[in-house]
Design goal:
The complex is a heterodimer of chains A (161) and B (1168). Chain A is α+β, with helices and mostly antiparallel strands and 161 residues long. Helix content of chain A is 40%, strand content 21%. In chain B, the strands form twelve sheets. In chain B, strands 8, 13, 14, 15, 16 and 17 form a six-stranded mixed β-sheet that branches. In chain B, strands 4-1-5-6-7 form a five-stranded parallel β-sheet, sandwiched between helices. Chain B has a five-stranded mixed β-sheet with strand order 19-35-34-30-32. The chains are: A alpha+beta (161), B alpha+beta (1168). At the A-B interface, α1 and β3 of A face α9, α12, α14, α17 and α20 of B. Chain B: Keywords: Golgi apparatus, Transport.
Chain lengths: 161, 1168
Amino acid sequence: MAPQLRLNAVAFVSPQNHPILIRTFEQPRQDELKYHYIAHTSLDVIDERIQAATASKSTDCYLGLLYVEDVAVYGYMTPLKVKIIIALELSDSIVRDADVVAIFKALHTAYRRSVANPFLRLNVPTENVTDHSILVSAGNSRWQAFRKRVDEIGRAVGGFQ
Amino acid sequence: MTAQRVTITYSAPPAFLATDHWKQVYAALLSQLPLRNLHWKSATRPNIRTIQELDVNLVSAEAKQTEHTSQIPQTVLEKPLLSAYIVVCDDTETYRNTVKKQIKEWHSTVTQRKNMEWLIIHIVRPDAIATSGRMFQMKASVLDKIKADFNVEKRDRCVELVWAYDSDYENPTAWADLIGKLKDGILCAFDAAVAQREEEVKRSEGQRQMPGWNFCTFFILKESLANSYEGMNLYEDALDTYNELEILFFQVLREKNLSWFGTLINPAPKDDSLPLLSHSKKPYRDLILANTISVFDFRTYLLARQCSILGYLGHVVEIARKAVAFLSAFGRRLRDIEEILPTHFIESWTYSSALSVVEQCDAWATGLEMNKATIASFNAVKGELVELARHQLDIIGISVGHLPNRPPFSMAFPSNSRRDGGTPATSSTQRISKSEILMALEDKNAFYKVYIGITNRAIELYATAGRRKFALKMHGDLAALDVHRGRLSEALQTFTSLPAHYAPHGWTSLESYMLFQALGIHTAAEKPRDREWIFILLDFLKAYVQDLGKELLMNTEDHIEYVTSLVQALHEATQEAESDLSHHDHPAISVSVPNGQARTADNRDGALLEVQVTNALPCDVPADEVIINLTGRDGAKLTFLENSATPGIYSLHSSQVRMSRLSLHWLHSSTPPPSSSSASRSKKPPTLVSIPRDIRALDVRLRQPRRMELGTPARIVVAFNTGRNHVTRASVKLSAPSGVEFRHNEATLIDSDNDALEAGEDTFVLSDVEADKTVYVSVPHSDASAFHAMRVNITVEYTTLVEPDVNRSLTLVRVVLTSLPLAINVEDFFRGTRLFTRFTLSSTSHQHIRLKSTELRATRDDDGLKIAKAMPRSRTVTTITPEQPGKFLFQLDSARGQDREPLKLHIIYRVLREEVESVIESAVDSSLSESVSLQQYRAELIDTLVQALEKDASWVNRYEATGELIVPGIPVQDGEVGEALAHLIETLANPSSNQEPSGEWREIIIPVDVPQMHIVAAARLRVLSNPFNPDAVESLPPLFAGQPISALLTIKASFHWAPAEDVEKRSYRMRYDIEERTKDWLVSGQKTGEFIAEDDRTFTTSVTLIALHHGHLILPKVSVAALPIPGEGRMKAPLIPSCETYQAHGAEAILVLPRGGRSTFVVNMGGE
């Protein structure tokens, strides 16, 4: 992983556009709002990208650089349509897509492993197993493992220097 | 800088160039330009590049030679790619003598030039071709000679142009050969030139690691390639070249080998306000060549070049995207050296550049045809540029104090940068030059105007791009500005409308932030804490308790305190609220029933249910009341308010928490509103609450009245049992969902001297009923015979003597049968003045019915009716079953012609089940009377027995016959209960005496009309012993088959049962008909005849019968029918009087003997 990347924030958004988890790394408290805004506004751009991808029949999960707003916002959509949005610190050098994709893959894995937690379905009736609220609940503060995994990735990328 | 164009030089003898002929040819040649559809096949590129259109300079060789050439690598197009020589010569002799020499001279110079192609154009007149064409080609033409002389290689570089003064310029066939040759030549030369230049570039790039290599020199070299491509209109290749240069630049940058650059930035006075995408605003190439260019200028130049090429390609979206990325990224880089830049240089530069890019893009986009999606993304990316410009205003605004240093304004600060908001100290003495920014710095209002203008522009662009969420964010920014400027009502309006956009998808963090702002403004504006405020607050608390809700709100300690004060304020506000408020499904508080088992309150009516109220807020919430609503099986609803409860199983329907005038509702049931948000919740299994039966509580039951009389209004009996309490007042309301109406105002008490019944329109009220007392009230209702059973909702509201202040209410659903358990069928038989009536009673259900008595009574005693009953005396109780109906026969004798009142059939009966239940109850009661300790098991004992009987019907027959109730299949149990049970079984199996079982009987009264018949005819066939003396009373002589037998047919008519109105009628015409019974009898005589019947008169006629065989034969039947009476008046139909005939001889049989005597048979013996 290229050392110059700096991960400022990560957001997981459900296929129905419900926020699952929004994590910021070492950001001033008053910037929390900024990253929530970024996660929210990114959905517009992701929608545009999805439309373009459907038009071109692309099946790539990686949606590329979504937009720049003193951080570089990248998007990724898992095959099950969970959207992952990351905000990288802007740098004046070229960011290789492969590095960004590597971060996304790690985050996707963290999410998959967290959602596989069978206890998420503990109090849900069986006919409801496909309910997206389970996916959303993975980011709930009651489930620490997901946060820990995401934080670990943030640290590994260089979020905590 | 305009791109260098392709040049073609031409040469010709000077004498020819001066002619008009040449001028015309030149003009015609120009008209064929630009060249179209050139296909460049390059050895180094996989694909053929197609150039749609290429502009070409056509100049004379002399003019071109005068231009100087520099050492700096220019584009390969700088030198002419093709040199043409024009020959006009029709005559081979002339050619050989003079022209050839001229061409050779020219040829020797052109072939020395590198990367240049040559072409000899031979112009001929059409008439010359015509003359030469007419003759045999004895001699080679001039063109052939030229070709032979100069085409040394395989390539054909000679072309003929057939030129006529008057021919059509546009004629493409004339030009095709020449144009094709021109294209070939240009491409060939270009290819060679590019290949050579590429080789040079590659060589130079390979020396990158060597000392002395200079990026700037290399850049100029490689850029010449890009320029060449651009000149050839090969924009993609040009762009690729610049992109490669950019990548190389970053590589070099990473290697930190920037010695050939000047400083990072050398701010010039107007740097911050010049249009970003102009590559001519500074002498960039000279700066590069001089190695003095700053990184800032270099990057700007590179971007401008890239964008201008993209502009040619029409890729405006990409231009804007590149610009945003560059401005943001390079702006970030400039921050590192902010202290040497003029104050606000970065902001001003970014601001002006972003806006200038938007303008430039718009300029490039005019005339472009874009599809819908492209227009949207173009607008979106322009929005991003405008927003970027807006962020610069944020930073400037905060630093000069026009804006507060807090979100959302402070969001524009790059992360990890200084946050003090003050103006950074700078060593630069320069000032920024953007007039808008300068004005905004000075004047607060100008700043706000620019700020709002820019923001609205971004909103507009985002809106047209379909980026709703970006636009929302911008609206939030505007509202924040309104707050700062004290325009609170505008801000409040925005902040109260924004949450609705964030709530639907659970963006509670943003929602709560908006609501938090709204609440803050509300307080700041000192608005009254009205309904609106309460709802904003509730929404805020809702978002607050959700997972993400707290994330955006200050620090932890603060917000607990803040929420506590809010809840406190809410409590005050709800107390002062003018009307009741309700709010559904607030997540801050949840009400659940952890244990579905309610308890009975020991000495009071009602049940207790444990309810768990969970408060998710970090502070106490004052609540006045908690209400639970339960739904029962029949849709019965129960409000759990610590008062009476109907036993049964319920599901939790809804709950409520009241705080003064505010009530919070939650719906738990599985009959949800169809909204999608509750769809997931509705799938949860319902919470069941079971409420035990409180035997000692007030109870109301319904039943059919013990005595029913058909034909009178139906009634039901309400059995009101007070239970443990002395009820001071109870109002009872009955209603039936089926629409049957109850006449409460006609309710009457049964068997009671208590006159405390107050009948009202909708309810009847009982007052002062003592404890443990049952009051029966009979209530009439509208016809319900269409139903088999009737469901009745009973609502009781009552107060007790012990707790006069508690109003209890009880809602019950009872089902009461409305149909009769019996079906009755009537058959009448007339015999003269008597009538036999047979009632067939059958059970309509599977139940056995015990009949005590049936009795037919006249309504009036003076009716002259004598009723006698045929009844076996041996049995007191009859049982009828569905298979075995009971028949009851009555004989009526009456005087003639009276107007008869209907009779009434009284049936006293009960259903076997009721009887057995009462038998069991009385047995249990009598056995329990001895032991008080067993009293509590009474219900259990009865249940056990009844259930045992329900399971096995083997006891029924024996019980019905003997009264002995053998309870089958009860296992022997130990203990007190077991003993009692065993004792009971014993008692039931051996009833003490033969007396009628105890329990109540029911009575049903059925009105029966006395039937009427005009004529009752008694037909009789009498065999006469002596046909000549019909009256002789002798025994019949023996009768033989085949023997004629005289018989007398007598028909006696009686008008006794004629309806009263027809009593006056004295006679009827009638017809009789003796049945043909051809197997038994031959009838001779008048078999059919008419006669006049009169009351109590006999019609007589004689017939002769012949028995066809011997045996006991029954006489033929005689049918008698009345003939219609012609209608009186014109319109009346003929009237057929009713008539019934009975065969008086119906039971008689006659013995017919076989015929005796001798028979003679003559047999021919066959002899002569």
